[in-house]
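Researcher: Quick sanity check before group meeting.
Model: Go ahead. Protein one:
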Amino acid sequence: MTSLPAQPRIAFLASSTPEAQAAREHLSAGFGQVAPEDADVLCVLGGDGFMLHTLHRHGALGKPVYGMKLGTVGFLMNQYRPENLLERLQAAHATVLRPLEMTATSESGATVSLLAYNEVSMLRQTRQTAHLRISLNGQVRLDELVCDGALVATPAGSTAYNFSAHGPILPLGSQVIALTPIAAFRPRRWRGALLRSDTILRIEVLDGHKRPVSATADSHEVRDVTEITVRESLERTVTLLFDPEHNLEERILNEQFIT
């Protein structure tokens, strides 16, 4: 159960689709509309992509976020039902997510820091395979991984790109992250690793001039990287709200039994 006021101030945020925009107009007329910084709760209308966009844009506000699906993918969303919204908000279950922090260094020497609520991924930019060196907490664990790329997934993101790359699904609250190779060629049988969430992971690009690699934190990409460092954020958290029958923990569990 949430601890929202009986009449919470709601900021309705919608994706650019006509359906989402129409829903925002309808809900704003019925429940009012405030700016995100003045809201008690953010109500996101769209799909998972727009939810991630909202978390990146407004996550620093520390407001709880309740999504309703009006997009193509909705793993992080509740069903769209405009009726009884206030009752649903009061009955919703809270899930606290802690994103990954990625610091990427490019060939030019520039350094970029980004957050990832789902995953950090590295991908080859050309037909040449990527050659990567992997270190954990300052110790080299894999001298050379020849692959299309690699990714690091949070529990919330483990059912997305990570699962498609044959990585494991992680329970919420497990304090574990997944390191998963993408089309590993050498070592051919290496399937990745489960790491403590406080692990400091460094991935270096070998022979980057011939074999350029990009790094992406959710949907934010950095080209021609020489290395990245990934760790769980020590400061940032975000609270997602879910209807009791559609809570995120149950969805992640169900994913493991779908045939």
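Researcher: Fine. The other one?
Model: Protein two, sequence then structure:
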Amino acid sequence: MDQVAQWLKHLEQNRRYSPHTLAAYQRDLQHLVQLAQDKPLESLVNGNIRQFLARLHGQGLGPRSLARMLASWRGFYKWWAPQSGMALNPAADVRAPKAARGLPKALSVDQTQALLDAPVLLAQTDPISLRDRAIFELFYSSGLRLSELVGLDHQYTQTKEHTSSGWINLADHEVHVLGKGGKRRTVPIGAQALQTLAAWLAIRPQFAPSNVAMADQVALFIGARGRRISPRVIQGQLAKLALKAGLPTHVHPHVLRHSFASHVLQSAQDLRAVQEMLGHANISTTQLYTKLDFQHLAKVYDSAHPRAGRKS
């Protein structure tokens, strides 16, 4: 449908949504088009949206998937309804089934240290290892999302071909990112991450060809062919390191973001500051980490208190 393509283009150009997010929205809108069959999208009403959700629920889609899909439909109609002359957004007051909100997965401080100080990583001085060390340290240092880290440039750049959406400033110990919903934030970079970034940047020019697009020329992290690194490469490299470091759990980039939030909260107890650094629009999202911290305290209590309920 033309209007769906127009909305996705609007999100890409005006809201700067990531390709991953745009692809998810496109899939969600394809479901809506298929469910509507021959009905024009502007003819749908509240009852149609409810029926579609019920049908998808009957096909086995869980509450989280339904909520995400409904959010995509609602966002589309918020943009499309005024242009098509619709009186109301048909998805505006429809609610998806509630899902239990699980706690984010985070590594303990010891596990994080074991990962980042793994001998298999520290012993290597080849360019790929230096790049990976800088990536992993920056994830944990600043709590970035994967898409935010991939989009970083090694310095702010503004040309006809490319304008930086995110970049680092080593002199000021800061990383500037454009997060979800086009919200910009600045996050500190820790000492360990600064050292590994400086080591990577010292050799990066040797592996950055000039015959690539400007967006690749200025990318902070590049792959073997000199182009901006892909999310899949980072996910794969981190998973391999976790296995070699002997961690008992699968580690993906978001685990390092969760670990950053959990560990800062344990030390500082400043919920608002962590919300700002993570770029959460709603503080209730950040509050999940306080529950994670309480779980840690509860385990300490159960193992240490003489009358905590342990069998004698």
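Researcher: One line on it for the slide.
Model: The longest strand covers residues 174-178.
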